[in-house]
Design brief:
- The protein has 279 residues and is of the alpha/beta class.
- It is built from ten helices and eight strands.
- The chain is globular, with a radius of gyration of 17 Å.
Length: 279
């Protein structure tokens, strides 16, 4: 069976589909600027617990096609829907980290629920409702923060990506933190596989897309998880607002955990997600 699907606008999207085809599917949506490989620890854990696990590389990321256009939440969600429909996933749980959380919110609201394919959702350190400061969300981050991301990515992403992974993403810049050089290298490897154009343009998608309406439309049970030492997506702008906007939310904030908690604290995260999925 091929491990790619072609979207309606002709883009080749890479995906993994592991485990029994008759088991409940869990689909994982990765963060910026990474790939489905970022979910390794979760893929193996849920596979071992009897689930069918699916994960794809966003357009312009990982092994998916490096196209010029469509680096926005609407296309991200439509691409995820193309994978879901190709595999005919039903009663699925969709789990998104960071930018992938925005992708999940738009997919579930605009594709998954209307098609009756979604059972539950999980948002991990996710970007909705919006990261940037706006009139509606005055506590958001100033646009200059994201301009810095654009500049660093466009001008020397090799160094910028290393600095992000070695510093704020995993909290490795905190005093007393246990630093895993292999984790830094793996973040860098995933990032450098993708297209610099997709990465630069994706910054607008994850920072300036107002997903208030998506969250309000997510009527399925949704688990919201975040660390209170998230230096990338502040939990008060993300998880706490999600908890208020979602119709059917359960929220858990982990003391001291970083943005990249799905890697640094996979055991904690996996157990809580498993309990939610089975509950």
């Amino acid at each position: 069976m091929t491990s790619t699907v072609t979207t309606k606008d002709g883009v080749s999207i890479f995906f993994k589909d592991w485990g029994p085809k008759d088991a409940q599917p869990i689909m994982f949506h990765h963060g910026w600027p990474l790939s489905s490989d970022d979910w390794d620890a979760q893929l193996m854990f849920f596979l071992a617990n009897g689930f069918r696990v699916v994960a794809h590389d966003r357009r312009g990321h990982g092994r998916s096609e490096q196209v010029s256009d469509g680096h926005d939440m609407d296309h991200y969600a439509a691409d995820a829907a193309a994978v879901v429909e190709h595999l005919d996933l039903r009663n699925a749980v969709h789990i998104g980290h960071s930018t992938g959380g925005g992708e999940v919110a738009r997919y579930v609201a605009q594709h998954g629920i209307p098609q009756g394919r979604v059972a539950k959702a999980v948002l991990v350190a996710a970007v909705p409702p919006i990261m940037a400061k706006t009139e509606a969300y005055p506590n958001g981050l100033p646009l200059e923060v994201f301009d810095g991301f654009r500049k660093g990515t466009a001008e020397n992403r090799a160094q910028f990506f290393r600095d992000v992974a070695a510093g704020p993403f995993y909290g490795f810049n905190r005093e007393g933190a246990t630093v895993y050089p292999g984790v830094i290298d793996n973040w860098w490897r995933q990032g450098m596989m993708g297209s610099v154009k997709a990465h630069v343009e994706g910054i607008k998608a994850f920072s300036e897309t107002d997903q208030t309406a998506d969250l309000k439309a997510m009527t399925v049970p949704t688990l919201v998880l975040a660390g209170d030492d998230d230096q990338v997506v502040p939990y008060k702008q993300g998880a706490e607002l999600q908890g208020k906007l979602l119709p059917n939310a359960t929220m858990k904030i982990y003391p001291g955990l970083p943005h990249g908690l799905l890697t640094t604290h996979a055991d904690v995260l996996n157990a809580d997600i498993l309990a939610f999925v089975r509950g």
